[in-house]
């Protein structure tokens, strides 16, 4: 009884399977499943307040399994447990790889944004250079205009001086 009572799992069967009645505490006794090597998968009724209660109510629901059934059930139980561990491990690996992919995507997005910033900086330099060149052209045009005007004024002045 002690090994079976210690091996209870928290999953209880539907109410249709609870046909034994109440334990010594007066509480309805739930149907549990033992997962020990001697009783793998064998169902039993026990106190609902176990292990906090001193009620020692216990009754097997299933007949005892044959030695072969116990062996196969225990082997399947252990395989199932191992497969669940592997699944959990694979899920953790997938989660870690997903996190790595997210990190790589973030890095790729950062690089793309950096490239866009560099491209915008180049465009800004080009615009500044154009503005500078346009300013020089305007200054040059203004200087040419002033020089032309000076030449015209000089010619007119010389013409006026020569005509006197």
UniProtKB/TrEMBL annotation:
Coiled coil: 80-130
The organism of origin for this protein: Liquidambar formosana
Keyword Coiled coil: yes
Gene Ontology MF annotations: zinc ion binding
Lineage: Eukaryota, Viridiplantae, Streptophyta, Embryophyta, Tracheophyta
Protein name per Swiss-Prot or TrEMBL: GRF-type domain-containing protein
Pfam annotation, one family: Zn_ribbon_GRF
Domain GRF-type: 23-64
Keywords noted in UniProt: Coiled coil, Membrane, Metal-binding, Transmembrane, Transmembrane helix, Zinc, Zinc-finger
Membrane spanning stretches: 142-161
Superkingdom: Eukaryota
Keyword Metal-binding: yes
